[in-house]
Amino acid sequence: MKTAAVLAFSASLFAQGAYSWGAMGHATVAYIASNYMNGAAKTFVSHILDGATPASVASWADTYRYTAAGRFSAGFHYIDAHDTVPHSCNIDLERDCGAEGCVVYAIANYTERVQMTNLTAIERTDALKFIIHFLGDITQPLHTENLDVGGNDITVQWGEGSKSKTNLHAIWDRQIPETLAGGSTDAVAEKFAKAIVKDIESGIYKDQKDSWVSCDSITKGAACPKVWAADANSFVCTVVLPNGVDAVQGTDLSTEYYEKAAPIARQQLAKGGYRLGMWLNSIAAAVNSR
Ligand SMILES: *[C@@H]1O[C@H](CO)[C@@H](O)[C@H](O)[C@H]1NC(C)=O
Ligand SMILES: *[C@@H]1O[C@H](CO)[C@@H](O)[C@H](O)[C@H]1NC(C)=O
Ligand SMILES: [Zn+2]
């Protein structure tokens, strides 16, 4: 069972590369958010997406960035914290958000644009699709870290044998969430999201959820996305690389490392979904109040 799963993940990894929470992770965030969207947000989102569901568009930005038209958005999926892992983790917008932009300003930008009635329908649709995707990306710790290209250059193993060679970023994007959820399909994401929602409502996340949205104002530009990026970045020092790069380089992360990392990956997906639901409620309310 375990071996088969590991092989399947290795295969999907080589086919797709590592860009952000995999499609399963982004769909999970969208399904969680859908659970927290009120009637006004559902109406607004359905209108802007022309009837499509948040989950069905959650990974669009990862395809778009590799097209000629979407190349400008490649730098919007992350922020390159130039901190000193594992001694000190921190985000400094001046230092870390490059000329090509970053996820913090991208969220601020598209939150504004989706509300602008003087943009074209396609521009507003793209803005919403970016929001749905980036509120997921910004909770992935390695999307808030510059070291070794966000861990892409840190070679690790996922399972035994030569076929299991991968990198740390990919482990966090796909292997950890997909092992937790039990697969990579949309149906798996929907089921995984249901279990996470249950934990937000009455389980392990019940007492934390308010702190996840302690900054939730859509009118403060980059302020809240910056708080979220700093939160995700803090886990780079405590969970992703607590003992530095040498401690993980070339080692198999599918056992003890996974046991420690998995609860944090799950919690980060939960945060992304919960925040996205609240964020869309605020956007819909703002649009309706004009
Ligand atoms: C805001 O969005 C527009 C349209 O996609 C893009 O051209 C611009 O570079 C974005 N600005 C920032 C700061 O992300
Ligand atoms: C759209 O309206 C905003 C103000 O809401 C303004 O700043 C912006 O320049 C306008 N854009 C276009 C393309 O007209
Ligand atoms: Zn992404």
TrEMBL record:
Keywords for this protein: Disulfide bond, Endonuclease, Glycoprotein, Hydrolase, Metal-binding, Nuclease, Signal
Signal peptide range: 1-20
GO annotations under biological process?
A: DNA catabolic process
Coiled-coil segments: none
Q: Which GO terms describe its molecular function?
A: endonuclease activity; hydrolase activity, acting on ester bonds; metal ion binding; nucleic acid binding
| Top-level taxon of origin | Eukaryota
Report the family membership.
Belongs to the nuclease type I family.
Name of the protein this chain belongs to: Nuclease S1
Organism this protein belongs to: Orbilia ellipsospora
